[in-house]
Amino acid sequence: MPSYRLAGRLHTAGRAALQRESPPQCGFPWIAPCGLVAAQLGRDDMTTAESTSQATSFDPRQITRPVPALMKYYLIVSLLTGPGFFLLILPLFFKYETLRYRFDEEGISMSWGLLWRREVYLTYRRIQDIHLTRNLLQRWLGLATVSVQTASGSATPEMSIEGILEADALRDYLYTKMRGAREPAALAAEPAAAGGAAPDVPAPAANADQVLSLLCEIRDLLKQRLGQGGRA
Predict the structure, then answer these.
(1) What CA–CA distance (Å, rounded) separates 214 from 232?
(2) Could you give all domains of the chain from N- to C-terminal order, each with its CATH number?
């Protein structure tokens, strides 16, 4: 087959493929780019709506234990220590088996330990900041650590939540609860501050009355002295 015929067939096939993939032009060359942009915006809106629905449907009250991937993470971390594997894996294993979470309307509860049981309870009002960290191994396992800090002044976080797959949704939930717990307190503090300052307003008027009465007494005494001196 001659080369010009082969080139012609390839050109025709390419044009047909482009016509199938591209939207109809309708006689206006600017309609096709606008259609592509509109389709992309529609996909972005659907993605945003899906992520919003997922965040809305997230219920932390269903989280009571860490996922099994956390034990895999502990095992790999212990293996990387080499000779100290058995010294590290035992406390991590007992921590994984006894680790419990509880989320309610007031705060978060975290407990772990077999012989020495430890429990930490934080109210949403005490939370000052929330950090989400992932190392390389945690990314591979789909895990993260949600660190909750308070105003205690400690360099270490007050609570570190591990073994949660929905770490991003949990962080957003805690931020929402933290703001919701602070707003009523701030609104209640404003009327209290206003009510405490109101009784102090009439204080200058009361002092002025006392000064005026004192001046009147001094005036009356001076009149009496002057009257006694004139009679003498």
Answers:
(1) 27
(2) 61-190 (2.30.29.30)
